[in-house]
Amino acid sequence: MTTLTNSGPIKPSLTILGLETSCDETAASVVRRGEDGRVEVLSSIVGTQFEQHAPFGGVVPEIAARAHVEAIDGVVAEAMRAAGIDFEALDGVAATAGPGLVGGVMVGLAFGKAVALARDLPLVAVNHLEGHAVSARLGADIPYPFLLLLVSGGHCQLLEVAGVGACTRLGTTIDDAAGEAFDKIAKSLGLPYPGGPALETLAASGDPTKFDLPRALLGRKDCDFSFSGLKTAAARLAEKVTGEQERADLAAAVQFAIARQLSERTDRAMKLYAASHPGQPLRFVVAGGVAANGAVKAALRRNCDDNGFSFDAPPLAYCTDNAAMIALAGAERLAAGVSDDLDAVARPRWPLDEAAALSNPSNSFGRKGAKA
Ligand code: KG4
Ligand code: ZN
Q: Is 324 found in the same domain as 308?
């Protein structure tokens, strides 16, 4: 349960330990948030499990949960050592409580509760998506509100972010996330996991005009995404391509099609956002693993130029899953007087904008992307 803390005045500066275990990264970080909101990352340690999952071509939940149990002690110790502080110096602990693979989420959340209990610290149970939503603020002073495209292996959403805990969803995927599409198509092209970066490398020597891939949801005027048709079409073509040049051409066409869809929906969202924020600064942020993709970023920069938005993306290390973004979300919540009880539960599904998810249930349950 989330509660307003009433343990006296909020400390001017907060030093928070963050924990992230919702997928295949065991991560811990110490972040200091100054009185003026300035953010300093004292350490950010990310232990990946790539090698354990690679033979299976994707993340295996049971292997992930076990690997988190084995890694978390060491990763936290390393984060504390790198930050040069001990547990006495902490003002709180923030742990991802969902959405994600629940076995892994439970490991990080239980560890966070143990630290909170042992050190008598407030606990913040952080929504992983809220972590991505604030991640660009780790690298630059980006004031609220802003329009956010959150695009990763588990999520593909357009959100208006008015502050921590104040997100309104403008659009989401009705099937796969964009990163999932990159990964699955990369797999059908015989590329190693994770597929996104490998597909981008192959696409660099390809010609995107050599293949014509389907455009999804053409008749709709909303900001929702769909990548399953593209995935199926690309998988069929991947069976037929011969030679390295054709593979590169198909990779380039896939990357172009994904970037085009992200850009088209972002354009719609920018127009809606601009209309509802007359006379206000127009800021756009792209976050999540797919924000590392050069073609995607270039297309989104053009959107910003066309619609008069500023463009920001987190530093590369904070695009993909990390614990610094969880620590910062926790610090911002604590600074606002919000913390959670020790009975906070791990949630496999946890929409960031619960109001939108409830009012539009056809977009909220079932086939909607792994973690959305
Ligand atoms: O944010 P993230 O680490 O994990 C989730 O919360 O899902 O994102 C990982 C996703 C993977 O699907 C990966 O293939 C994709 O981000 N990704 C990329 C690139 N780098 C990472 N996709 C396309 N191009 C890239 N350069
Ligand atoms: Zn993520």
A: no
Tell me which residue has its CA closest to atom 14 in ligand 1: 196
Please name the residue whose Cα sits nearest to atom 13 of ligand 1: 196
- pLDDT the model gives residue 353: 77
Quote the number of domains for the chain.
2
Q: For atom 22 of ligand 1, which residue has the closest CA? A: 196
CA of 155 to the centre of ligand 1 (A): 10
pLDDT tens digit string along 60-91? 788 788 989 999 999 999 999 999 999 999 99
Q: How far is the CA of 246 from the centre of ligand 2 (A)?
A: 32
Strand positions, DSSP E, the chain: 2-4, 14-20, 25-33, 39-48, 92-98, 123-127, 146-151, 156-163, 166-172, 283-287, 310-312, 338-340
Using CA atoms, how far apart are residues 17 and 25, in angstroms rounded to an integer? 16
Q: What is the extent of the structural domain holding 230?
A: 146-313
The minimum-distance atom of ligand 1 relative to the CA of 178 is 12
368 belongs to a structural domain = no
Query: Is residue 131 lining ligand 1, measured as CB closer than 6 Å?
Result: no
Q: Which of 185, 182, 181 shows the shortest CA–CA distance to 235?
A: 185
Q: What is the CATH number of the domain that holds 190?
A: 3.30.420.40
Question: Residue 7: inside a domain, yes or no?
Answer: no
pTM of the shown model: 0.89
Instruction: State the distance from the centre of ligand 1 to the C-alpha of 354, rounded, in angstroms.
Output: 24
Q: For 279-314, how does the pLDDT look when each residue is reduced to its tens digit (9 = 90+)?
A: 999 999 999 999 999 999 999 999 999 999 999 999
Please check whether residue 73 is in contact with residue 103, taking contact to mean a CB–CB distance below 8 angstroms: no
- Domain ends where: 297, 313, 329? 313
Q: Is 194 touching ligand 1 by the criterion CB < 6 Å?
A: yes
Examine residue 366 and state whether it is found in any structural domain, yes or no. no
Within 10 Å of residue 111's Cβ, how many Cβ atoms? 23
Confirm if 257 and 293 have CB atoms less than 8 A apart. no
